[in-house]
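Thread: quick sanity check before group meeting

JM: Hey all, I'm pulling together slides for Thursday and realized we never actually wrote out the predicted structure for the chain we discussed last week. Dropping the sequence here so it's in one place. If anyone has concerns about the input, flag it before I start.
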Amino acid sequence: MARDRHEFSELIRKRYSVRSYLPDDVEPDKLEQVLEAARWAPTAANKQDFRLIVVRTRGREEELKLIYPAAWFVQAPLVICVCAVPAEAWHRVDGKSYQDVDVAIAMDHLILAAADLGLGSCWIARFDPAAARSVLHLPDWLEPVVFTPLGYPDDQPKKGLRRPLAELVRYERWPDEPSPALPSDLRGI
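JM (edit): ok, ran it. Output follows.
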């Protein structure tokens, strides 16, 4: 059955950062669908320069809290880490690596698929990389970039505010306009 644009727009709006999870297990077929969505994410030059680590939280709560200390991080039955493989990344002509972009696209596919299946997620970039390396036994060639719990939500979405398009979009080129004023605490730095 084909999904229409309206349904996709609703899915985008329905996804939110879940910070409370039920202890219910995620069915294996739903986990596979979420992982498949990440696998099909477009990457620069189709390098697929990311790896996914799925961790069951039960019995590992204390060590996983070394990565990110919030109690809700380990409430969900699963935590997923998306890692970059820097050696496989595509580089633009000026040398900029696209590994973080590729990881972000994979993560976005993963969390949208999760929302579509009634699962919750929360993008976590503020974690301890050294603890992640230690707890997950990551080899040097992998870089942990982002985590998400994965499980059934036990909360309700809060109304997400978004800037109007007029603040975010320009057409054809950046207009000649003054730079935004720096906050007073940043002036003179």
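AS: nice. Residues 99-116 form the longest helix (18 residues). The CA atoms of residues 124 and 182 lie 28 Å apart.
JM: adding both to the slides.
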